[in-house]
Input
Amino acid sequence: MSHHNKSNAPRRARRLVLAGLVPMLVLAIGLGSGGVSSASSARPQAASNALAGNDFVAGQLLVRFAPGTSTAAASAVNAKLGATTAKSFASLVPNLQLVQLKPGLSVSQALAAYGQQASVRYAQPNWVSHIDGLRASSVTKTPNDPRYGEQWDWPKIDAPSAWSKSTGSHNVVVTDIDTGMDYNHEDLAANAWKNTAECKGKKGVDDDKNGYVDDCYGIDTINGDSDPIDDQGHGTHTAGTIGAVGNNGVGVTGMNWNVQVMPCKSHNSSGSGSVSSIIECFQYVKMEKGKYGYDIIATNNSYGSCPEACDNNPATKEAIAALVKPGVIMAFAAGNAPRDNDIRPNYPSNYDLPNIIGVAATDVNDGLASFSQWGLRSVDVGAPGVGVLSTFPDDTYGSISGTSMATPHVAGLAALLHAGDKDLDWWAIRNLILAGGDKVSSLDGKTVSGRRINAAGSMSCSGVKLFGMLSPVATTGSMKQAVEALNINCAKPAGDVSVTINPGSTKLALKDDGTGSDVVAKDGIYTANWSPACGSGDFKFKFSTGKTYNVKVAACVKLDKKSGQAGTSVTVTGSGYTAGEIVDVFFDSKMVDTVDANGQGKITATVKVPKSAGKGKHTIMASGQTSGISATATFKVT
Ligand SMILES: [Ca+2]
Ligand SMILES: [Ca+2]
Ligand SMILES: [Ca+2]
Ligand SMILES: [Ca+2]
Output
């Protein structure tokens, strides 16, 4: 058990230092072997590469002189370069000292100058250790659960270090929308949510008058009763990752040693749910949080695509949007059919809403799991999802894999951060989950953050900037739409951004002001509106942060006439949809027709202009259920 925190906790900090040291050590070796001229030409470049993206103390270097260099000789080198010895570490590492540089000499210039001295073994910046570094100080807390040693996920995400600050709170609730939960499990029962009015109430009576009779442990929306016991196993496993009881000498531990997991059974014994079974859970969450005061900070949603949740549909999207205001974070699985969700969206994780965190799965080596879906703009972060040990029904335990297993790590982390600091806004928790993770190469270019979650990193995040475009994803349609980007510094918004779109040199200023399509003010998601024309093709988005993204405008709709009277018919033709997909047609916000795209992704629909439509401009929109792409045309009622 303890070898986990010994080997893992300090690793991140060590890697940081090594990343800075390696190029210079190579140079020092070149120098020592006499290759001065070739080494010196490479040196300044290598030094500046090593400095990129890391913080160091201005005006200082750590210099280690070669063995046998006398104190006087070292001082002479310092004097020649206008530097002085600020501190000697000779009793720890021979010939190592901190030098104070002369004013005006940059650290990279000084690295180059010291590197040319024959008596210098190495010189390196005096790297700043962030609060991150607390992880390196090995302040950790590990639980006594007998199978904790088999849980690779917790040391991987530096949970023991986070647990030294908070192990969760029994007042915090996470709703697990899944196949139910074995709330009698030896390692879950103490953390199972209890609706006391019903647990202590009268059998057969809706004691708290919330519309559900005897909903002591939660509800079952797929079978239509108030018993969310798990008849499948999946939900008991995700629940254990969120909150198997920690440090109780039994079984495993969850991200939260103390928490309340509220199961909402939306999926049946074969793992299938419906839009309505899911939405009913969302409604229950909103009611129990808003009306009954349970502190539900997050939901776990380890499902997606048909038949579990099906494709793009307005009901699911609006139901999730309804949980923005109550401040409920929704962790959604990115899916287990390895593909790019930016190109072929996975719903619900792809809905463009600020309370959704889309989660990919990583393995013990921080590789992207072979089954995991990804998406530079549509999947936010990675979390352990291969061979995850957790609880199974009837007091058993087991290891399984899936983005379903990754997602509860994120929902659980939201609860742990909330327990650790009740003053954090929900969006600040979202931002900390994203910015506090560890950069891993397998997620670079495949997720918004490029990071695998790190519990301690989120808890002590300091000075981490993160930028990522969120929408449009790879392909979109011709209509007025939001251009959105996340721009944060740990929990906080990092300031306005702009984007230049080519061809056309369109410049947009993205604002985080909560107006128009910007859903939440000052949450770190910045938004502007963009209206690409029909069939306008490929665009390059270059942001003021320096990042570039490609957007293809594929879908387009046209009308056989641009104006007419209420009650008349309009023929809508569209193209650019996915072959064979179902396309919903709307007149303003009213769905008026549903058609199938043909093998070329083209549609034809006849829309009857509602008799109630007032004079003036209206919007006709066709929205693909599989592609998620919408395109619009304007119709004027005369
Ligand atoms: Ca009730
Ligand atoms: Ca009752
Ligand atoms: Ca336990
Ligand atoms: Ca915003």
Observations:
- The longest strand covers residues 548-559.
